[in-house]
Amino acid sequence: MEDTLVSPPDIQIARGNNEIASVVGLNVWLRRARQESHILKDVDLKIGKGEIVALVGESGSGKSVLGMTLLGLLPKSSRPRIEGEVSILGSKITSISQKELQGLRRHSLSAIFQDPMSSLNPSMKIASQMKEVTKELDRALFALRQVAIKEPESVLGRYPFELSGGQRQRVMIAMALAKEPALIVADEPTTALDVSVQAQILYLIKQLRADFGTGFLFVTHDLGVAAEIADTVVVLLAGRVLEKGPTKEILSFPAHPYTKELIASRLTMDQDQSLRLRTNPKDQFAGFSSDGCPYANRCENALDLCLVEFPGVSMVQDNWTIACHNPSPSPKAVAVEIKTMERRSDLDWNKKVVLEAIAIEKSFQSRTSRSGSRQVLTNVDLTLHQGEVVSLVGESGSGKSTFLRILAGLEKESSGTIIRHDDTMPKMVFQDSGSSLTPWLSVRELLKEALSSKTLSKAEIAKEVEDVAAKVDLSTQVLNSRAASLSGGQRQRVAIARCVISPPSVLLCDEPTSALDASLVAGALNLLLSLSESLEMAMVFVTHDLAVARYVSSRIMVMLGGRVVESGDSNEVCSNPLHPYTRMLLDSLPGERRGNSPQEALGRQPDISGVDNELSAVGCAFANRCPNAIEICRTTTPVATYISSNRYAACHLVKGGTK
Amino acid sequence: MSGSFFFIKFILRRIAAAVVIVLGLTAVLFFLQSISHSNPVHAMLGAGATPSAIAAEKVKLGLDHPVFVQYFNYLYGLIHGNLGMSYRTRRPVASDLATYLPATLELAFYSLLLAVVLGLLLGVLSAGEFRGTGVLRAILIAGASTPQFLLAIGGLLIFYGKLNLLPATGRIGIANPPSGPTGFYTIDGILNGNFGVTIDAFKYLLLPSFSVAIGPAVSIGRVLRGSLIEAISLYFVKTANSKGLSRVRVLTVHALRNSLGPALSMTGLQAGLMFAGVVVIEDVFAWPGIGYYTAQSIPSGDFPAIAGVTLVLGVGYVIINTIVDLAQLFADPRLRHLEMANVKTKKPLLGLSANQG
Ligand SMILES: Nc1ncnc2c1ncn2[C@@H]1O[C@H](COP(=O)(O)OP(=O)(O)OP(=O)(O)O)[C@@H](O)[C@H]1O
Ligand code: SF4
Ligand code: SF4
Ligand SMILES: [Mg+2]
């Protein structure tokens, strides 16, 4: 299973004296609310010329703090205290003056941050922001062309809000690049982007380091991305480096128990749909032990020693080290796999229909164009059976969430019909439902509140609350805690419990796991699926992750420009996509190798010339980007072509019948 | 659609706002006058006036009509640029205002300028955690928490009484100062080549404008500091830092421009409030402005004078807010974009609607 994760690095990196950054025995303390905490502990790290080092680990592990330390940009307001040595190109940045540090940043260091929407100055034209890194116009234009910006001159004259997310991130990269720095710190540079744009950007970064020999510290929480891009992986947990070494080896044969868990909890295209996802059998929310190994509370191999003493570093191979007292796999560590889930093919089309949406259209009044409205949904149909799970996938802006909101009754369709064969309204779980819980209420109160529409006695209410808590696996202790004191996974559970305490016949989920750490995603998906099974609840699942869609749902609908361009059994859509757009989405998944020939593995070159992912206004919306486009595609919008009763695609090249 | 079209619409909307405000203010004033017991005619003619003289004077002033009619007469005059006659000075209110207004405007202008400069300094320095900021902050905040007239009197005691560095009262110490073209002595001095006048005028301005400015400066500075600190944690500021720009450049070019919105709103608000402060301070320093004029008009029930002053303040308020909003649009291209789009759909967004007070 790990094999799909690994790609050979595209270039062999010459290590040795080409070192551009080195971190030795780094400890960082930061202060918040008058309390100092030890954020990074004894971190060692080296980055060579042209090397891409991926820093992986869960939220809060200290990845960004390490990146900021390398840039010398820890926030002053946190009164950072640094011990140990950080050298960049031979200068020790902890002991040089502010001026020298600025000089270093001006000439040799760059940064790319996660959110392309906020990392450019909103009130300055791109040209002025570019000028701060290079005074020469030629160089700025060259850098913009490097990142496949089509009309660099016109982009220079625009404000950031006049660019798309992908364009902004490319401008950001161009800016980082223009001074030809020795090192770029990239903190989750693709996390906020669509998979298709992500694939373009990763490709770009690989090219750049080949062309310029730029070193990268690439912060990511996504092992697929790390596999795609990095030469070296550094695994961080609670500020400690647990494992460090060559990407291919580590991802194929992880030596550290925590790395093993990270890899095992990754949901891939090969995940067996009849099995529950593997979760850590120990308490997910155990927290970190402070003196010993930070993983000790969750580790299956833990010894008594692990709780009190952090292990020394040991060598697995050349350049490959781990810090663990007991790395040998224990028999218990094998996945706990329960065979409970229904096979997809068994899905019963004769089950009763709970929700129908027929020919839904939606247009919004446009703010900026005089011509009036913008069409966001065109002729979308959906028939949902009891207990069925359908996924909606597609790039951002394709209309997934709008459609979901219409199904939920939160938005009014412009035309079309919604038929609810049931009195209960669908309920909705959002991406950040967990964070929108009223922080000062206890979980019990939050759950009661969700019930309040019913007329029940006090005792009955209490019982309902206990029942739902048992269903979503919340302990009594959690029931009595305030929302503010819960972990991310617990909050998401509470949010789900609020939805199912009076079970709806349809549950609508909008990216319910994309704000969660990988180790929590499995738990949340298991929970949603088991609820859907036991309550016979139908679910519509909006996600940008095809691997998640394939695993949770029996049917996938692929959306583009407000239309459903492909629909069918989830396995079939993923293994045999009909529409070129679906194929592109699948090809863009990081760490998933579709083609087997070495040629394909190496040379998979995403089409970065694709007119910035703009949709074509007439004809097929994908025509601008489609490698197979023919003449008719630019003039006529393709209609749904059925190749079987439940499988269709809207593409001129797909042969079949109409319904 | 073109920016100039947007601009014209914007200004038209503001003029409409000014008209509404003028109508509202005068209506309120007339109502107040009608229920007050002050008798301006008595005050004018003195204690020994005969009832028939009083009645005759009333007819002459139009005070024998019902309030309603008086109001319309007043508005009619207003349209023709006639603000009526002052009962007290027996001169047209308009020319009285022309005499007193420049002094107030000059004081208000420099006070506002000072408030903005001090506010910027305070905001930027304290957000940037530069050395020595604490002292500046302490002084300003202490100043701001002292009532203005105490500040003024304290200033007088020290700089006039003890040190004898600055003059106590009045607007200028030089006889026959230039009488135009702007009415601001500091500027007219330069325009007439008489720098002595300018320097002297600044000496007289120093204490009063400081007394007025410190409070608003701290308010502006605090708001600015807040939004700067917020901006500093934003990614584009981190981006700017990662480019190796100097701390000052990051703070001013990147953070400041994107933090100006709230500070500008605060400036508009403070500018409005500042007139109240100016009126008090004019009294302390015997500054010959409209505050001084008003203070004399109130006891004699000089209604046309009071109404004239109120109108000027109301219109001034609209003008200041218009300037603040335009500055905000200038500072933030996104806002400009949205506003221009919204003029088209006739939906005012943010605070830029016509009835913003
Ligand atoms: N300015 C700060 N002052 C004090 N503590 C901080 C500060 N910034 C981060 N921390 C703490 O440092 C730890 C590491 O944070 P960091 O942002 O580096 O995590 P991360 O690995 O980047 O997580 P994520 O994946 O969520 O971005 C966290 O416990 C965080 O609360
Ligand atoms: S065996 Fe011990 S040291 Fe190794 S990961 Fe587990 S708890 Fe940590
Ligand atoms: S209709 Fe044409 S452009 Fe659209 S996906 Fe099919 S082949 Fe490509
Ligand atoms: Mg981070």
UniProtKB/TrEMBL annotation, chain A:
Topology versus the membrane, per the UniProt entry? Peripheral membrane protein
Q: Which SUPFAM superfamilies match?
A: P-loop containing nucleoside triphosphate hydrolases
Q: Where are the transmembrane segments?
A: none
Tell me the first and last residues of the signal peptide. none
* Enzyme Commission number: 3.6.3.-
Task: Quote the InterPro entries the UniProt record gives.
Answer: AAA+_ATPase, ABC_Ni/Peptide_Import, ABC_transporter-like_ATP-bd, ABC_transporter-like_CS, Oligopep_ABC_C, P-loop_NTPase
The Gene Ontology CC terms held by the record are: plasma membrane
The Gene Ontology biological process terms listed for this entry are: peptide transport
List every stretch annotated Disordered. Answer: 589-608
Q: Where in the cell is it found?
A: Cell membrane
One of the entry's Gene Ontology molecular-function terms is: ATP binding
Q: What is its main location?
A: membrane
CDD domains in the record, alphabetically? ABC_NikE_OppD_transporters (cd03257)
Q: Which NCBIfam families match?
A: oligo_HPY, PRK11308.1
**By what name is this protein known?**
Glutathione import ATP-binding protein GsiA
Q: Which organism is it from?
A: Acidithrix ferrooxidans
Gene name for this UniProt entry: gsiA1
TrEMBL record, chain B:
Record carries keyword Chaperone:
no
Membrane-spanning segments: 12-32, 107-127, 139-160, 273-293, 305-330
Known Gene3D superfamilies for this protein? MetI-like
- What Gene Ontology terms for biological process does this UniProt record contain? transmembrane transport
Question: Principal localization?
Answer: membrane
Q: What membrane topology does the UniProt entry give?
A: Multi-pass membrane protein
Which keywords accompany this UniProt record? Cell membrane, Membrane, Transmembrane, Transmembrane helix, Transport
Q: Where is the ABC transmembrane type-1 domain?
A: 101-324
According to the UniProt record, one GO cellular component term is:
plasma membrane
The record ties this protein, via Pfam families, to:
BPD_transp_1 (PF00528), BPD_transp_1_N (PF19300)
**Family to which the UniProt record says this protein belongs:** Belongs to the binding-protein-dependent transport system permease family.
Q: What is this protein called?
A: Dipeptide transport system permease protein DppB
Q: Which organism is it from?
A: Acidithrix ferrooxidans
Query: What is the organism lineage in this UniProt record?
Result: Bacteria, Bacillati, Actinomycetota, Acidimicrobiia, Acidimicrobiales
Which gene does this sequence derive from? dppB2
